[in-house]
User: Fold this.
Amino acid sequence: MKLLLTLLLWVNFAGTPDLAAIRKMYTGVTKSETNAKEFSEKMAGVSNNDDKILVAYKAASILLDSKLEKKLKDKIDRFKEGAKLLESTIKSEPNNIEIRLIRLSIQENVPGITGYKKNIKEDKKYITEHYAEQNATLKDYLKDFILQSKSFSEKEKQFLK
Assistant:
């Protein structure tokens, strides 16, 4: 019985990335190509049936990966794949503030030519309205993002205080 429990715990830890570690990695993915690749490798093992927050980070990794593709067609295909996965994840959990944060972080940084910027106001509003309801760890993560975000004006950031 002990062996079975140990094996189950090992498989769970080995197969599913730690959310705290993923959040930390995500904040640094745009700083270097190496960071982006490491993040993508970490998220590659996430299944679409896993926790929806992890699936949203996987979608973000695919979107980030699209930037690294050499051929235009591959960039476009990879981008569409990531956007589709992120949108389906949001559709399955529309009230998940972290998934909305992930989409906002992507949409505020993609070029306008992608046409993937239509939810910025909606996600900002949702985050602003539901920030106070979150646990301390998530609040800190949200706050760090909001303070450096291009989407929130200085006046809009005042709700954090």
